[in-house]
Protein 1
Amino acid sequence: MDQHESTYKPGSRTAKWWDERLPVMRMMHGQFVDFPTPRNLNYFWTFGGILTFCLAIQLVSGIVLAMHYIPSADLAFDSVERIRRDVNYGWLIRSMHAVGASMFFFAVYVHIFRGLYYGSYKAPREVLWIIGVLIYLVMMATAFLGYTLPWGQMSFWGATVITNFFSAIPLVGSTVVTWLWGGYSVTGTTLNRFYSLHYLLPFVIAGLVVLHIWALHVAGQNNPTGVEIKTKSDSVPMSPFAVMKDLFALGVFAMLFAWFVFYAPDYLGHADNYVEANPLVTPPHIVPEWYFLPFYAILRAVPSKLGGVVLMFAAVAILAFVSWLDTSRVRSTKYRPVYRWFFWLFVITCLALGYLGAKPAEGVYVFWARIFTFYYFAHFLLVMPIVGLIETPKPLPRSITEAVLGKGAGAGSPVAAAASPEKR
Amino acid sequence: MSSHDDNNPHASRRDFLAIAGPAFAAVGGAITLWPFVSQMNPDAGALALSSTEVDLAPVKEGQAITVQWRGKPVFIRYRTKKEIDEARSVAARSLPDPQADADRTKKGAEQWLVLVGVCTHLGCIPKGQSVGDVKGDYGGWFCPCHGSHYDTSGRIRQGPAPKNLEVPQYAFTNDAKTKIKIG
């Protein structure tokens, strides 16, 4: 983590005493105050900080909710209602937690697409990216477990459908599912263990976030040009420049968050989840929360059970391999005239899959879900390797400074059309 | 015994300890892990609920009832002659999960169809038990979650479900064949 000299000066005798024993302030100062940050970061780079904020909100509100929630099949539903009606400010804290899950996923999707657009997964940031994919995976597990806890109809049947994914495993499938349930169907026993794991996983996420930031601070941040920091003029200290920009974006994000919490706390959920779980009646139309819809569409697009489950998990897992699937030597899509079109096609594909996941699995919806599922995988397995090889990228700026301040001395100098940024 | 030496072709006592020690620790670790895996399986209370008795006498021809067994719904349908004929007229070999209707009922009580009412796709409960329900294209059951159609023998005919609705282990407990014990 040491690419720059520490400029930390203990400001008091106490600080000096600590610095000689546990230099945690020196470390924080080096990593979060005078850490060199590319001077050209745009607002898409503020989502890392926003996500940290989301994790903190979920942890704090969740720990408070756990003081009032009862993880039992008989009492869970009522205890959530009691939180909403009787507990002081329970309505607020529960809304923050429920809306917070959606905001967390919204932010993580912006963050992931930003990484895909600007090539933040490319060397030397492969490990950073893979840890990010793991965080996303654990987030999905946590969100699913948490959605089970209110013990409404969607909770119950969501839990049933998702745990049944594992029944697709040949030979041991049903044994695994019985083991997950602790019974022969989803019961209070299942609810209890899901509650335990829902409390555990956020701390796993927090640990992974530490590794994610560590890996980020080894490689340094990517930036819209994809050109690395070369001289001191390419960077600014993280504080106040990036920190203030992050805080401003966080303020705007918090306004959106608050609007949902105060004016539309249930808009992102399903009315069916205010009907208590009934193991004998499946709601006529089961859909997951919005942030899982694209994957749900992929699951239902495949006419085979095992095939659907495998493809759905593959849709997440494939993200871990993009560092090697993308053959382009240029990081940022800004300088990739051909790939840019495919990138936006991929964004449209994800949105379309999300729309189709919310529709019933019949007729024309299934047809389109299959088309878009094909493109989802083709984007990674065909477009990324092939376009990277055949495309002629636009000339890259020589440095971040040049990209920001114009060519200056470099004006008029012939820039090779074939990109090889590493060699410049 | 001399101490370990690369030129010594014989293993020393220390080599033995270096292999046996970690091997025992690994086996011990694995054995200790097992209770933590096994505790997730159904407990004695869940296992104790493993059978249920049902009186079929009040059920009329064409009617269906749903009972609970191990927390899951069990569909019991008193099939009409038309439904039985439909189930028998199709060649079992042509089905996605080939099974003859006769193998899914008890001899002498072919009108009774007993099924675990859980879709073999992802565990939803198919529609088809109540009078107004959609029964699917084959007159049996239809799963609203992902669109699986089951016929009047509870066999998968169309949709993503890989298997027929499960026939639980059950037996008639009286000679008049009006009572069954499931499980």
Protein 2
Amino acid sequence: MQSPALNSTSTLNISSETAAHSEHPDLRMTGMAFFLVAESMIFLGLFAAFLITRSMVAVWQPEGSEVEILLPGINTIILISSSFVMNRGATAIKKNDEAGLRFWFGLTALMGSIFLGGQAYEYLHTPFGLTTSIFGSFFYVLTGFHGLHVTFGLMLILMVLWRSRKTGHYSEHKHFGVEAAELYWHFVDVVWIILFILVYLL
Amino acid sequence: MTAPTTTPTTAHHHEERLWWHFFTFSTDHKVIGIQYLVTSFLFYFIGGSLAGVIRTELATPASDVVSPELYNQLFTVHATVMIFLWIVPAGAAFGNYLIPLMIGAKDMAFPALNAIAFWLIPPGGILLMSSFLVGAPQAGWTSYPPLSLLTGKPGEFIWILSLLMLGTSSILGAINFMVTIWKMRIPRMDIHSMPLFCWAMIATSALILLSTPVLAGALILLAFDLMAGTSFFNPAGGGDPIVYQHMFWFYSHPAVYIMILPFFGALSEILPVHARKPIFGYRAIAYSSLIISFLGLIVWAHHMFTSGVPGWLRMFFMITTMIIAVPTGIKIFGWLGTLWGGKISFTTPMLFGMGLISAFLIGGLTGVMVASVPFDIHVHDTYFIVAHLHYVLFGGSVLGIFAATYHWFPKMTGRMYNEFWGRVHFALTFIGLNLTFMPMHELGLLGMNRRVAMYDPQFQNLNLICSFGTLLLAISTFPFIINMAWSWLKGPQAADNPWGALTLEWQTSSPPPIENFDEPPVMTSGPYDYGLGGKKADFSFLKPKPRAMAASAEK
Amino acid sequence: MNIPSNILTLVAGILLTAVSLWYGQNHGLLPVQASEQAAQVDGLFNMMMTIATGLFIIVQGCLIFVAIKYRRRAGDNGDGSPNNGNIPLEIFWTAIPAAIVLMISIYSFEVYSQMGGLDPMASMGHKTPSQVLAQNGESTSEMSMSGMVAMDNHRGSIALGLGATPANENKPPAVLVKVLGLQYAWTFTYAGTDVVSGELHLPVGEDAQLDIAAQDVLHAFWLPEFRIKQDAIPGRETELRFTPNRLGEYPVICAELCGAYHGVMVTKLYVETPEQYQSWLDAQQVAQAAEPKTPQQVAVDVSKLSSNQYLQPYAQELGITPEMLQHMDHHQHHDQYSEQHNS
Ligand code: HEA
Ligand code: HEA
Ligand code: CUA
Ligand SMILES: [Cu+2]
């Protein structure tokens, strides 16, 4: 279906069409906000399932299904702090400080990686598996699904870093990528806090 | 005073749209809208053919045409196709095509995202159909565990994957609709002079954003149970199948409003135009969509009245469900008020529109009946429910899609459809629909359960009527298909505004140029200011066919 | 408004009411009533049918009326009246439906609590599912769901189904039967006896309670002539309590999709005089004392039948006959099973 001729014309179309869209104000952050509404509903649904099941099952955490709290606790602190670190990066670019952006975002990426590493370590050392108990299943699926989101957020940050190597790519007036990555990271953070309370503390 | 309409088409100096653009990753919302519409119609014919096999099987009490396993696959895929590949994408089709035109924008807010949303649908649909090769899912479109975990594993997994793709598509589309309507209206159009279709799409998109992700969550957990051996919903491992039902219906009840609201919106556009009257009670109709959305989020357990829901909760969900009759009634009565005192021309869109009111009413009234817990305990999971759901979905959504397709056909293609065959299509569809689904009420009340390939011979006569009605429905699609195909290729040229309508999409050429408007459109009147010296309709195309007029007089 | 149109409206209103009332009582769409609860549900349905008929006539009537009165005449390309709203009218048609649904809700609530739906004691003190299974079957270990994890005990206090009617509250039922749904049969264990049967017998006029459980997947226990239905949920116990008041044979239908042979998961309920019931029970007890059975042995697995065997009785009569269930003994069951595997 895709002959070269087809391709060239359709790209032509796209570019001429997208050019025109620069006229309307940048709506991407609004779109992002709606996207995060949808994202929160997935987590809300999963959390609700978690809570209902928990209230129904007689033995919630059977022998050997207990979770360690120290490592994830440290992990939590790292993740929450990373949100503040990242915010400094976003503030920096609003003052046209590109080096600041690179530094703080780099630090955030590092902290995010530590979090993921911590999670991997935790997975390797938990005494239960995915199918050992219903608690175990929820534990892995919830933290895993969240971990996927952290990974995605990390990729966004790395993308911003990659692009920011070119001076002037982000500036006081043009920093959608920075803002979007930041909003997403905060979202992932908030979800983690709820998840941590539900899975580890409750 | 009606200058924009008379702008000659030749003035548009845009490149010609070529047929193969419709097969590419185009970011033009009009191309995408038509891609959506044509794709969803193809899936309608597939879903309808499956229904044809279902009804053939049910013409006799014995299970003689297909095996019981295959029968279960047939209705599972029938419902999945009809819902996720026909009605929902068809709603997105009109949303895509119409929203930017109606609000005077050049395109959607995120054209590339829009194209991605569309291109998730064909693979999702093909994936679903491919499940027949390995044994399609057999657990009904509701896919309740534990059954869905025990039968037809590969098919079930394909079903989950396909639904995740289609759900993602729907979410991406909803983001686009929301942002576009919210932010891209022409400056003079405030929220209360926006066409009602846009209101309906806001209500629909809000539901999609809030409910579809919960279905995704349920499907992810179901997939783990299916493939990884967890037991979230499997009582054998300590899970609770009822939790799945809650999550499923938290999406699938709002989904029924996702499937009807866009066409309620379209109806609010169509009726005033063909009755030459302002919409009756603009604000009431606009807000009632939002109220339906909100209520739609808190009634889901009415699908679980005989399941694991305690008595007092059943009462709560009964009352919230019944209240939905109020905003829906506001719409129905508003439409009747619109027709009252108008000058109604029985064009095909108008016939389908009035047919929608008539048939949806029946489905809505039975909906309120089944909302009553003591009565629902009797009819739950019987053909009474099958009758209800087809009256609202076929009598509501499908007739709405037909009405909208005919109404905007001249705009989309620049050609006029054939009025006579349109009316034939309507007559056959309307009779066929009532023959097919009316007897199902009685079947259910008398004791015929749903999802069965063989049934008590005492029910045979009524079932025969249903099957005969389906034959009529199948026949009715032929005048439609031929009319559409022929008119698109060879039909008479349509004027820019053949209906003399006032909404902005009619101010540009038919079909519109690539960026919709050659010069920024201006609102010279409200969207429904008929009878106030606005535009006049040109009904000359109705005249040469006196036969067709006679056909309409008997309705 | 002149007088004739007022009179017309009045006449139309009276006619509308009369037709709706008549149709609401005479639709003839429901099967016989075999219990007091069925009569109550029918009363509710008739009331809703009356209202629905009225609304149906009003809306369809308006559609036909406007289609005739306000059709565009040939050559008239003008617009209709510019009337675009009427607040009092809109309030009227918001308030009336609101009042109607409120009324239906209250009536439904009343009927539901009369049926025992709100009995706070329903399911109270029921056993955990594993105990339920152990009661229904002789040994749990043989069953496919032997690994069923016990649910929380306090889950038993959630009322699921229909409990005692207000009149019978706090009274034990006269007859207690444990119902087990499994692919694809219903089996009944009569409390206080060893009787396990594939058909349900109940004495007329006595308060009966069914404790419903499922072994494998969801099923739903439906008695159309009694207008009652409740899902059988693996891992949970539900109940239906009712008093049959009409002698006869009634179908017992599985209403929840439970697999390919969901459609044949049918048996019969025999409502008999107390004497007949007792003698049936005694006869069963003698037979079963000689050869005890578990529900799983009583149930015939229709999916293991050849399609001819399976369709033959079905085409003539709804459901597997009770004789089939009774005479299908353990050995035969296994023979068929291995046959399937060998072929
Ligand atoms: C487009 C889709 C659509 C729509 C719009 C509706 C609308 C409604 N539905 Fe329906 N429904 C389905 C699609 C839809 N439904 C499907 C697919 C199923 C089955 C799923 C499955 O199990 O497979 C289902 C099942 C279903 C059930 C579960 C039945 C069961 O399984 O036991 C219930 C129960 O409450 C219900 C209720 C209602 C109600 C109260 C409305 C209301 O919104 C209707 C409101 C409209 C009116 C009432 C008419 C107009 C109003 C007036 C003229 C005003 C005056 C009226 C009164 C005062 C009554 N529906
Ligand atoms: C929008 C949704 C939608 C639509 C449009 C339809 C349309 C139709 N449906 Fe469907 N249906 C559902 C949604 C829908 N259905 C759902 C949600 C269920 C529940 C499933 C479940 O229990 O899980 C269901 C279940 C369902 C059942 C019950 C199955 C069962 O419980 O055992 C039946 C039985 O008659 C049925 C029949 C029909 C018929 C005859 C049509 C007709 O209107 C179709 C008419 C169209 C055509 C006929 C196609 C055009 C013709 C051709 C392309 C020519 C070829 C034609 C032939 C070979 C005949 N449907
Ligand atoms: Cu058991 Cu259906
Ligand atoms: Cu619903």
